[in-house]
Write a structure and sequence with these properties.
By secondary structure, this protein is mostly helical. The chain has two domains: 35 residues; 64 residues, no CATH class. 55% of the residues lie in helices and 8% in strands. A two-stranded parallel sheet has the order 1-2. Helix 3 packs antiparallel against helix 4. It is elongated and about 65 Å long. The two termini are 24 Å apart.
Length: 105
Amino acid sequence: MQDTDGITKQGMKDIAKAAVKKLVKGQVFSLLNIPSPAYLHTYVSQISLLKNDFSYVQHLYKASQMTDMKERMKMVLRFALTTNWVNPTLIGFKAPLTPIMGETY
């Protein structure tokens, strides 16, 4: 996965600018309150990504039915690898929104 649009680099620059502005003003303790730029987020929420993770739960169900430990471990690894592949390919370098925190697209 490559950041061909330079979104990550631009985002880091914007966050660094905001941090320097706060430091110049002497607001050292408010550095943790720097918001991330909106263009670093994707329209997909964290809940949607969790739904994607659990759409492959049939691998865990099959693993629970197996008696051979090696085959069971293969199924658990298959579950872990498929969930870790789908979400990064879906959203790339962007962070998901958290609607509970009031973030909306």
